[in-house]
């Protein structure tokens, strides 16, 4: 079992490292048979369209076949998806905990520096090796020493709102893109307002197509918050990308719903402000 | 019951009101004016995933109104 789990970990780790804070939802696991010179491979598909593959050997799968009594490809795929979901949930939790520790230590370091410099501006100045500058400009250093704590406090005041949203103050690491609950509510609202075909497309591939209300052009909205809209031609090929989103740092479900409504109801207005890429 | 759905950082905030209750309708109209004044677009949702309809004036009989914040280019 451990061999196939390690392969799945490799795939899932790639998604986490590629997408950092916005870890995409795992949507599917696929297995491709060997073809020509190519080995059989297993792939992980994510809600944002990201897909990654790793070669797999039949003996890697024996344990999982036995455990799940999966003796054909569809049932093996389901078994791997089940395993992958469990592993991915653990990896996401560890990932967030790691990011949290990193942020807390960074914040602690900033607090510590701020405290030391505010209490002992002279010591901090000397510690940073400003002595040489004193020789060149005798008046400059005392002035800089006086300004350092003030500038640090100003900087801290600017940063405070950002930090207030972070795990440092216990509101969840992903607060800047919405808490988990907010993300779920956003996706729920989106799904409530997708047609059956769009919902199926989104569940399966992590994107859905909409028709422009003014021009009748076809757009593909991928899971995401920015640079996630593609204009397609009649054959479904990408013509260009469009980037626009609602103000207010909304969660991805809300952003995608706003993009859908905008393209369907005021396509001309929104494409005037959107950036083409 | 009609509902106004305002997109925000929590996902959305929902305000339900009874069309028969005149006070609730007045409050809902105030909310509509306040939000559209701030640049929100009001969309009457179709309920079946269809395109819906852009709403310029408050209509208490619209079952579900979605308020979308002002859009910006990325």
Describe the structure.
- Chain A is flat and about 80 Å long.
- Chain A is α+β, with helices and mostly antiparallel strands and 277 residues long.
- Chain A has three domains: 2-96, no CATH class; 100-176, no CATH class; 179-276, no CATH class.
- Chain A has helices spanning 2-19, 58-68, 73-119, 121-127, 131-136, 140-164, 180-192, 196-205, 252-265, 267-273, and strands at residues 26-32, 41-46, 51-55, 207-211, 218-222, 229-232, 238-246, 275-276.
- Chain B is α+β, with helices and mostly antiparallel strands.
- Chain B has one domain (2-68).
- Chain B has one helix spanning 22-37, and strands at residues 2-8, 11-17, 41-44, 53-55, 64-68, 71-73.
- Chain B has a five-stranded mixed β-sheet with strand order 2-1-5-3-4, covered by helices on one side.
- In chain B, a hairpin with an 8-residue loop joins strand 3 and strand 4.
- Classes of the chains: A alpha+beta (277), B alpha+beta (74).
Unreliable spans of chain B: none
Helices of chain A, by number, come to: 10
Shape of chain B: globular
Q: What is the structural class of chain A?
A: alpha+beta
Q: In whole angstroms, how far apart are the ends of chain B?
A: 37 Å
Largest sheet geometry of chain B: 5 strands, mixed
Tell me the number of structural domains of chain A. 3
Shape of chain A: flat
Compute the number of helices of chain B: 1
């Amino acid at each position: 079992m451990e061999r196939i789990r390690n392969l799945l970990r490799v795939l899932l780790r790639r998604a986490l490292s590629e997408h950092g804070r916005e870890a995409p939802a795992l949507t599917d696991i696929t297995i491709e048979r060997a073809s020509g010179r190519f080995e059989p491979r297993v792939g992980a598909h994510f809600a944002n369209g990201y897909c990654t593959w790793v070669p797999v050997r039949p003996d890697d799968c024996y344990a999982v076949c036995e455990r799940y009594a999966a003796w054909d490809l569809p049932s093996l795929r389901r078994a791997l998806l089940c395993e992958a979901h469990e592993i991915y949930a653990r990896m996401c939790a560890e990932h967030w905990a790691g990011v949290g520790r990193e942020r807390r230590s960074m914040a602690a370091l900033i607090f510590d520096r701020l405290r030391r410099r505010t209490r002992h501006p002279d010591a901090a100045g000397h510690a940073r090796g400003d002595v040489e500058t004193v020789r060149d400009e005798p008046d400059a250093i005392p002035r800089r020493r006086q300004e350092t704590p003030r500038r640090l406090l100003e900087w801290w005041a600017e940063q405070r709102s950002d930090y207030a949203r972070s795990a440092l103050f216990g509101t969840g690491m992903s607060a800047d893109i919405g808490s988990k609950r907010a993300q779920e509510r956003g996706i729920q609202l989106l799904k409530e307002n997708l047609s059956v075909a769009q919902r199926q497309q989104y569940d399966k591939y992590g994107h859905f197509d909409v028709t422009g209300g003014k021009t009748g052009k076809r757009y593909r909205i991928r899971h995401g918050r920015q640079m996630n809209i593609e204009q397609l031609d009649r054959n479904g090929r990408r013509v260009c990308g469009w980037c626009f989103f609602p103000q207010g740092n909304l969660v991805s479900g809300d952003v995608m719903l706003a993009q859908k409504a905008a393209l369907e109801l005021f396509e001309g207005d929104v494409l005037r402000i959107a950036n083409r890429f | 019951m009609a509902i106004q759905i305002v997109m925000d950082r929590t996902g959305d905030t929902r305000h339900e009101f009874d069309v028969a209750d005149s006070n609730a309708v007045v409050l809902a109209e105030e909310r509509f004016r306040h939000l559209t004044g701030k640049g929100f677009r009001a969309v009457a949702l179709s309920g079946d995933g269809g395109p819906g309809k852009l709403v310029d004036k408050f209509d208490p009989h619209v079952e579900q109104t979605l308020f979308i914040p002002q859009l910006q280019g990325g």
